[in-house]
Amino acid sequence: MQENRDGLTIEYAPGPNGSAAGTVTARLAGDVLAVEKIDLRKSKARAGFAAALCEGRAGIDRPAVEAELLRLAADLAARGNGDGAPAEPDYWAATPVAAKEAGQALLESAGLVKQVADDVAVLGVAGERELTVTLYLVGTSRLLARPLSAIVQGPSSSGKSYIIDAVAKLFPPESVIRATSMTPQALFYMAEGALECRWVVAGERSRQQDDDATEATRALREMQSAGRLSKLLPIKRDGVMESVLVERNGPIAFVESTTLAESAIFDEDRNRALLLNTDEQTVQTRRIIDRLAEGYSGAGKAAAETIIERHHAAQRILERGPREIVIPFAQRLGELITPERVEARRAFPQLCSMLQASALLHAKQRETDDDGRLIAAADDYKLCRHLLLGPLGRLLGGHLSAPAARFLERLRERFTAAETFTKREAVTGDTASKSTAYGWLGELADVDAIELVEPSRGRQPGTWRLATGPAADAVLPAVEKVFPA
Fold first, then answer.
1. 376-392 burial, b for 16+ CB within 10 Å, e for fewer?
2. CB contact burial 328-366 (16+ within 10 A = b; e otherwise)
3. Which of 112, 149, 301, 359 could form a disulfide with 254 if both were Cys (CB 3.0 to 4.6 A apart)?
């Protein structure tokens, strides 16, 4: 504690177990002016405390307050986090100069998005360029107030986990939390600050869809919606059980994979995430085999290491820059989004978060307003519309996933509009597995692309036929409508 020239003193008391999220108390001439729990390691938290303290108090020097808070933070870092763990390393300082320069050049490149897709390809991912760019933007969104979540669907062995892992490698290890499985209380026991602005990369979604599975993802849904967790948990202290309020701040970006059909994913989880698909086509399988053969030959390893370093540096540059983004065309865009389905209430924020993620990724190429906020541009909407037409079309109804649409075309090659067929007949002989094809049939039925002729009775299966289905309107307005000449 030091007294500055205004007679102001600032005290810091570590939190439970000496954690960095402690209590800061400001006094002037012995009178308490402010008491707040903040994490001194966070510059935003320090700035917020200083602003609140100085508001309406002309006699207090804000730069002096911020300097004192920074000194306290430095003292805390010098002796570790206070909980026996070492202070968080300065990752930016440890980043090689060559990588910093390469990362800066990447962010300034006019072909930034193409380069992201090209770089993921060097890491061994064949094709899937739209999917990899979408996942890269999901990871980048961890720095936003409302990050994105995604579920990557696809048949077994279609490369879901491999693609997610390849994209995640391009993000600094300190910004990614890999969790192949998650218990219901896992997030509550994370260290203080461990979830803030992180990308949680989960494994395969459990195929178990009961109350236990729903409870296991409850905390995750709360973090996705509110950006923080709060729960009373029983904890033993000195041999006595007591209820303790445990709070963990986010926000987090999130991704997981699944072989489940869309209809089998719990509604509350599905509506919070972008549903993305792997490419199941034969031509994609050929690309994968060729790429695997190239990898086994040992080609590209040195290039991959350079690429990973460059992207780590680029993401660290974004972490150090402005993260508040405004969308000047948001009102116009909102007016053009149909409100007929209640899911639009989630779809529109997802679209806006993707726009902000694109603007953030292109921060070195975007203008700022008088308050230093990044301004999303028309190019951001062009990119996001292209990537989200399918996922948001499915959320709002009337659109098929790309694999289901291709399956429908194969059905139309085999059956006329007048012919009936059972579901077993529909999937028999198809290139996809039966479980995957049955999932697509469910998706076709949901949008009335096939219709039930006779329901099943006992051992007699139901019969279906092809239908025209509803017209699949473009759920996202055309660029020309959002930006009229």
1. bbeebbebbbebbebbb
2. ebeeebeeebeeeeebbebbbebbbbbbbbbbbbbbbeb
3. 149
| 412-470 confidence digits (pLDDT tens) | 888 988 889 998 999 888 878 888 888 888 888 877 888 899 998 888 899 989 987 65
Q: Identify the CATH class of 97-320.
A: alpha beta
Rounded Cα distance between 237 and 247, Å, is 18
How many CA atoms are closer than 13 Å to the CA of 329, on its beta-carbon side?
A: 20
pLDDT tens sequence across 268-293: 777 788 999 888 777 888 888 887 77
Q: Does domain 402-466 have CATH number 1.10.10.10?
A: yes
Beta bridge partners of 9: 3, 27
